[in-house]
Amino acid sequence: MRRYNIDTVLIWISAVSFTLFGFGCFFSRVMRQEYDRYGLPKFKNLIGFLQILGALGLVIGIQIPWVGQIASIGLAILMLCGVGVRVKIKDTTKQTLPAFVYMVLNAYLAIAIY
């Protein structure tokens, strides 16, 4: 029972985070500047949409596991790409670490929970 509770908390942490990140892509001036810095301004809205969709999938996955697994795999891949972009533009480890942590978190959710 305890494992389920911890995993549910991890699902909600990821889902809330990606909801905020996703909406930030649409409404945040800082996020617009970041995507310009990444060299990906044309993809900002698509990535935001995928983040919100992934967050929704994680929550639905609490009741329908295969949906959660697909969502967590998608978010892990999205964050793998994010890590790659940050390495390519020579961001610091501190700047790259959040994307790496979310990649590992969602890979864990995909493998261990679903």
From TrEMBL:
GO cellular component, one term: membrane
Name of the protein: DoxX family protein
Localization annotation: Membrane
Bilayer topology: Multi-pass membrane protein
Alphabetical keyword list: Membrane, Transmembrane, Transmembrane helix
Record Pfam families: DoxX_2
Residue ranges of the TM segments: 12-31, 43-64, 70-89, 96-113
Keyword Membrane (UniProt): yes
InterPro entries attached to this UniProt entry: DoxX
Domain of life, per lineage: Bacteria
Species whose genome carries this gene: Rubritalea profundi
